[in-house]
Amino acid sequence: MKSNDWDVAYEWKAVVLLALGFGLVGLDRWLIAPLFPAIMKDLHLTAQDVGNCIGILGLSWGIFAALMGGISDKIGRRKVLIPAILAFSLLSGFSGLAGGLMSLLAVRSLMGVAEGSFCPTSFAATADASHPRRRGFNLGLQQSGFALFGLALAPIIATQLLGVVTWRWVFALVSVPGLILGVLMYFVIREPKAAPQATPQRAASPAERGNWRDVLKSRNIPIAMAALFCAMTGVFVLGAMLPLYLTEYLSLDTQRMGVVVSAIGFGGFIGQFGLPGLSDLTGRRVASIVGFAGTAVMLYVFRGLGAQPVQLFAVLFVASFFTLGLVSLLSGPVATEAAPIGMISTSIGIVVGAGEIFGGGIAPALAGFVATHFGIQNILWLPIGAVLLGIGVSLLLEETAPARVRRQGRIPSLDLPTSEQPE
Length: 423
Hints:
Elements: H1 8-30, H2 32-43, H3 47-75, H4 78-94, H5 101-129, H6 135-161, H7 167-174, H8 176-188, H9 212-217, H10 220-249, H11 254-282, H12 284-303, H13 309-337, H14 344-374, H15 381-394, H16 402-407
């Protein structure tokens, strides 16, 4: 192999496995949402309880994403990735054993610990394996598994399995693939060699690893944290509350509700690699602004629709393309390219942690409060307001897309030698 060759075979094997892994994170996390109508009847829960169950996982996810991202930079990716995927798969199965609200909250909070640990570490492993020219696309492709499995297939799988087994067995069945994938990752995923990446923030810096305070000094990190909070508010309020909105307010039956809600995943699946991939060409800042503006328009249109499954699916598909694309863009290439040398996972963890704590933790609980006290029909105002705020935040981003900054003469080359690839 020549010194300037790139191990493309490993790159794609790693990206595919990590995409499947993050897909199972999405499946295990969001399978509960379309099951909630059945769970609520069995365990006597309220809409507020539903929001709390979604929110507590987001809170623990956020805390451990910030914590374990830094740890994986120090001890290695494999020591975090493999135990994490085995743990959240088992805990997903344990969700079916819940006998009441408190036990369900306990299991979901522990799931957040494992999934929060997996999240930034898997993003960093994808960045390690990716050539800079494909970094945005690969990070988006990896994260798109979350939307495809968790938000597209989970509603269909859950609502169809409910016709055959109870909700408890649904959780047990979907825990098995993660255990298999953990074994495959053990044999494939490599540790990266410590080397500087070709991004404008790191091109002129010595290879000295700093601490989390150095991460926050990077201009785009706090901006990405705020922007991701806005984007995740859109994603998680819709994911948590839309099944109830469609069944209780628009009076759709369970099967049609499952199909409509799956639009979040199918649109998000394309958006999670489409929008970051587009940002490789147009730039991160422009893509972020377009993503927030597109989400706001589509959610406003969605709010005006009645019980029309085809139209609801189409509009929700486009809205999810933008909003889930934003999640990949901000937590992937934006956070990666803003990271100090040797602190990619730390940077991703801090950005994802902030977005999860507020957008994935507090926002669903707030949506549950709105649904309980002001009516389920008013929950859409929360994500609409959040994404409008996101437009203003995105205007503050500094451009870091390698192709764009290279044309501006800010970095010399995107061709990295073989020595900078994972071992």
